[in-house]
Amino acid sequence: MKFLTSLGLSFACLALTAQTPETTATRRKCGTVQQDVSQHQAFEAWMQASLQKDNQFANAKKASVVYTIPIVFHIIHSGTTVPARNISQAQVNSQIVILNNDYRKLNADFSTYVTQSAFVSSAADIQINFCAASVDPNGTALAEPGIDRVNVTTKGWSALPYATSYIESTVKPGTIWDPTKYYNVWVLQFGGSDVGTLGYAQFPTIPSGTSPVTDMVGQGGAASTDGVVVDYRYVGNTGTATAPYNKGRTLTHETGHWLGLWHIWGDDNDCSGTDYVSDTPNQQVENSSCPSTNGAVKTDACATVAPGFNYQNYMDYSDDKCMAMFTAGQRDRMQAVMANCIRRKTLNNAVACVSVGIKEEAAGILVDVFPNPTSGRVNINVELMDTQDFSVSVMNTLGQTVKDVKQTASNGGLVTLDLSEHPQGVYFVTVKSKTASVTKRVVLQ
Ligand code: ARG
Ligand code: ZN
Ligand code: CA
Fold first, then answer.
1. Is 192 exposed, middle or buried (0-12, 13-18, 19+ CB in 10 A)?
2. 232: domain CATH number?
3. What number is the average pLDDT over the span 323-327?
4. Would 183 disulfide with which of 71, 237, 369, 386, CB 3.0-4.6 Å?
5. Which ligand is nearest to the CA of 263?
6. What's the whole-number mean pLDDT along residues 194-223?
7. 257 CA to middle of ligand 2, Å?
8. Distance of CA 399 to the CA centre of its chain
9. Residue 176 falls within a domain, yes or no?
10. Which residues approach ligand 1 with their CB closer than 6 A?
11. 31-35, 64-68, 142-146 — which one is most confidently predicted on average?
12. Contacts with 186 (C-beta within 8 Å, 6 or more apart), sequence order
């Protein structure tokens, strides 16, 4: 294992090729940087204080923010030498669509892999959208939104592939766009001592002067290296995307680190580690491949009873095809980072950008559906920005409307519907105002 110790709180991802006698499969592993324990504790103290503030705010105001983060992919290539590294706009767009599905709990594979009711109810909409930057830092329109193509020969750089040391010292500082305004993602080929790496991320930075985190200032890493790096073979779900990491979950996972999440198993091999999230079950070690192909309960020495361990979580190491959820606890951490952290809190709609697969443009309308799953009665809490008419309708998977309620001139309120005479299964609750429409799934069981 090798760590980027100079970066302080950041994550490095490494690949270890474990050739066991039984198998020649390559097992990919990612090491969290072993930062100094006091830094780690100070970060957690800050995070817990921040979450507390957030909860107070949430209780008092029931506020919930949907952020939109402009993203730029710096595609590092060598022209005609290996043209595949210069991935297509279609491939980048497929990745942005995946981020928007995963961070809004709109991923279609959710119901295939998240079947335990405990996970269905803790699974969360992170309320973060990603849009493709439409301008560069000079305000010049981009030929391809969200894309900055960089030829290493033109830059006078070494030949690809690159180890993280070169990426940190040369590639990132030489190409980064203002990290207070853009989420920077680099796409390149890992090489040297980092051959086999899928990706790695830099942790968020703690705000200056915020007690109790004064000692943490600057520990997230330098502004000139802030962002995420992904190997060109693990971006999106088309083009060069390579199984079993061909569903864009590497960037979903790295973005989780970039927004303050630890690995779900606590980076240990026993039950002592933690990801500091209360609704992710303690898990012994990381998973590889797919522990189950139908979302069945899997238990281990730390998660001994149902729902077992959450191998469906994006912060595990399962294959892309069975990673399908974040939890509410993980959402709270990421929301706290977006609200407080240097180079995160300034990102929301910071530059002109275009929607690539943002499904829910929920301007001015907040909807909370609970309990979910339900055994019949479902409460739909609606909050509107101003006084308007709105409707609440429920559709089954055949597209038939089974409930439709209209409310006149209000700021929202609680609508309770009884679905108990309908068959068990998935339903879609749509709340429509004159300006917006929000659809949430609810499971009747
Ligand atoms: N090894 C990388 C990291 O921990 C990424 C793992 C992503 N897993 C995946 N199935 N795409 O940062
Ligand atoms: Zn990781
Ligand atoms: Ca563990």
1. exposed
2. 3.40.390.10
3. 98
4. 71
5. 2
6. 73
7. 7
8. 30
9. yes
10. 11, 13, 28, 30, 198-200, 245, 249-250, 253-254, 317, 319-320, 323
11. 142-146
12. 73, 74, 76, 167, 171, 172, 175, 227, 228, 229, 230
Is residue 323 domain-shared with residue 376, that is, in the same domain? no
In a domain, residue 1? The reply is: no
- In a domain, residue 317? The reply is yes
Residue nearest to atom 11 of ligand 1 (CA): 250
Ligand 1, residues 317, 318, 320: which to mutate, most atoms within 8 A of Cβ?
A: 317
Going by pLDDT thresholds of 50, 70 and 90, the confidence category of residue 5 is: very low
Closest ligand to C-alpha of residue 303 is: 3
Number of domains into which the chain is organized: 2
The residues annotated with a catalytic role in the active site are 254
Q: pTM for the whole thing? A: 0.74
Tokens of 288: 């590889």
Domain residue limits at 124: 6-349
* Residues measured by CB to lie within 5 Å of ligand 3, the ion: 265-266, 268, 273
Whether omega before 244 lies within 30 degrees of 0, making that bond cis, reads: yes
Which residue has its alpha carbon closest to ligand 1 atom 1?
A: 30
